[in-house]
Amino acid sequence: MKKQYETVIGLEVHVELATKTKIFCACSTAFGGAPNTHTCPVCTGMPGTLPVLNKQVLEYAVAVGLAMNCEITRYCKFDRKNYFYPDNPQNYQISQLYLPICRNGYVEIETEEGKKKVGIHEIHMEEDAGKLIHDEWEGCSLVDYNRSGVPLIEIVSEPDMRDAKEVIAYLEKLRMMIQYLGASDCKLQEGSMRADVNLSVREVGTEAFGTRTEMKNLNSFRAISRAIEGERERQIELLEAGNAVIQETRRWDDAKGESYAMRSKEDAQDYRYFPDPDLPPIEVDESWLEEMKAKQPEFREGKMKRYKEEYDIPEYDIEIITASKCMADLFEETVKLCGQPKKVSNWLMVETLRLLKERGMEPEDIRFSPSNLAKLIRLADEKVINSSVAKEVFEAMFDNDMDPEKYVEEKGLKTVCDEGALKKAVEEVIAANPKSVEDYRNGKEKAIGFLVGQTMKAMKGKADPGKVNEMLRGML
Amino acid sequence: MANVISDETIEYVGILAKLELSGEEKEQAKADMGRMLDYIDKLGELDTSQAEPMSHVFGVRNVFRDDVVTNGDMCEDMLKNAPGEKNGMFIAPRTFE
Predict the structure, then answer these.
(1) Which of A23, A142, A216 to mutate to test the interface with B (most CBs of B within 10 A)?
(2) Are residues A373 and A406 in the same domain?
(3) B76 CB near a chain A CB, below 8 Å?
(4) What is the pLDDT of residues A198-210, one digit of tens each?
(5) Which of B12, B65, B73 sits opposite A52 (nearest CB)?
């Protein structure tokens, strides 16, 4: 019988924190600056400079740790991880090895077999590296240190996951919790969330772990799934052929759908960690910890419960809306302004989700403001515009976040209330469509729909269809 | 000299430090490192079972900075520290993965 294999997966997830400044200096973390315009002697590793910890970094790290049920290390330190590479100007990365800020936590994920806990081994704080650009022309590399010193947390899981689905569920859970905390936007494509996959296989029933490999360069959930499937197959093939899996770091090439070993012998990995003497230790006392605990926001579970009590909207809507902090905020803000939870929920559930899907966007990319959505709802409520015009205005608002009142005014989209104009249009439609008129009079209910459509067309969509229907019936 | 540094060790340390040493320099470094380790071994003669490991010289803790941007664009000054510059970036030896 063929051997059955089990996949064992642990994740190292790097998350870029949403601070305004870097971890050890007062340079901006803003994206998109010209090369090296957000740098200073500290983050370019000049000798004699002194790094000073950004307090917000520690508070975000603790907040994430608390959300993931971790023990907070009350006395923690930074260490130097030594390696030479041009993206790392100090020749060491400031990180935490011996006393990471959070340890021994877990997050709960939903799997096909029900709830499952994935252990969090530790969460530590560290700094990001610069960006290397390879100059083919000159045969050299160019370095931009704007990202050097941007704060990261690395969340290291236990090897508790068994397939790609569990990994994706875990990452989605992490992303949602961190977004709820406002600690990061967690965008895989933009690199503010990066996952390295540690994977090994073993025969079903065995206790001991197989030799693992680490896979890097995974920048979408799809790439992660594919890389997991690919690496599992590769390792099983090696074992079946009687070869050993080599412990190594591999780089995933999503275009080719395969991975290759990254490090050569010349890049021996020996980081010679030691405590960083420039950064004094951190002591988190009871009162500070309590203060941070008190600041934890309402998470999804709490929101779902509260929505059920406060708003009369379906449970399915609640689930979708609370799955993203942005959606939930947008929902709550808009309801506060217009007081109509059901209608706000409908706009989010139907049109917003449709457009997000069509445009290939995430809820985090939504640009329109709660006040504009509230205005649109009011315009539709007061029948200033009809429902199909409202959809058209919504789409424009979704793309450009403009004021719907002004837009309706400028484009002349208001429903025509002029009875005379409407009456004239109806009369013309009746005159032009004798066949349908006859069908209606002979009891064909459907014919009225056609006549309403023709009238709406004649009115360029700016009539209230209910009223047109009523008028048509009256005149026939 | 109690500690003897092997050829393999000096080779390995050379790779980590990105240094290319001549035969003569290797012999010199082996002798120097051996003596350094001998010196460190002296510490082993002391009873440190009661001593707290020390990572920092000063007794300060919790030195923080508020999350406020106070640095402006210092690109020009920073590039003065670069071994070479192109398009606002530091020129570094060619690297590839």
Answers:
(1) A142
(2) yes
(3) no
(4) 999 999 999 999 9
(5) B65
CA–CA separation, A83 and A276 (whole Å) = 15
Q: How far is A131 from chain B (nearest CA, A)?
A: 10
Q: Is B80 on the interface with A (CB under 8 A)?
A: no
Can you tell me the distance from the alpha carbon of A130 to that of A44, in angstroms, rounded to the nearest whole number? 9
- Residue A250 and residue A334 share a domain: no
Q: Which domains does chain B have, with CATH numbers?
A: 1-47 (1.10.20.60)
Out of B70, B75, B89, closest to residue A26 by CB = B70
* C-alpha–C-alpha distance, residues A117 and A227, integer Å: 23
Note the pLDDT tens digit of each residue in A302-339.
Answer: 999 999 999 989 999 999 999 999 999 999 999 999 99
Cα Rg for chain A, rounded, in angstroms?
29
A161 touches A167 (CB < 8 A): yes
Residue A248 included in any domain = yes
Shared domain for A314 and A424, answered yes or no, is no
- Does residue A69 contact residue A78 with C-beta atoms inside 8 Å? no
Q: How many domains does chain A have?
A: 3
Domain end call among A288, A309, A335: A288
Size of interface A-B (CB pairs under 8 A): 135
Q: Supply the range of the domain harboring residue A456.
A: 419-475
Whether residue A294 lies inside any domain: the answer is no
Residues of chain A neighbouring B75 (CB-CB closer than 8 A): 34-37, 39
Q: pLDDT band at residue B32, thresholds of 50, 70 and 90?
A: very high
Q: Tell me the pLDDT band of A267, cut-offs 50, 70 and 90.
A: low
**CB distance from B2 to chain A under 8 Å?**
no
How far apart are the CA of A32 and the nearest CA of chain B, in angstroms? 13
The candidate with the shortest Cα–Cα distance to A51, out of B65, B81, B66, B54, is B65
- Chain B positions touching A20 (Cβ under 8 A) are 67-69
Cβ contacts of A83 within 8 Å, gap of 6 or more: A91, A92, A93, A269, A271
Is the pLDDT assigned to residue A265 strictly greater than 50?
no
